[in-house]
Write a structure and sequence with these properties.
The chain is mainly α and about 60 residues long. The chain contains three helices and no strands.
């Protein structure tokens, strides 16, 4: 009887360690998938140009 209880506890610990988020693990997987897709998206050329202009304007503002 004690072996069954101990074995069950060990199984639960293994399951918990492999699934740290518990019932929220699916939400976590979906958020990670969304984040990975967002980070890998192409930045439009116009947006990259605007960022470049902002970076060039910042040093000029610091001198003033």
């Amino acid at each position: 009887m004690t072996k069954n209880i101990t074995a069950g506890a060990a199984d639960r610990r293994r399951a918990a360690s492999s699934d740290l988020l518990g019932p929220n693990s699916e939400i976590g997987r979906k958020l990670k998938q969304y984040y990975d897709e967002l980070v890998s998206d192409h930045v439009p050329d116009r947006f990259a140009q605007l960022l470049s202009q902002l970076e060039q304007a910042e040093p000029a503002q610091k001198k003033d």
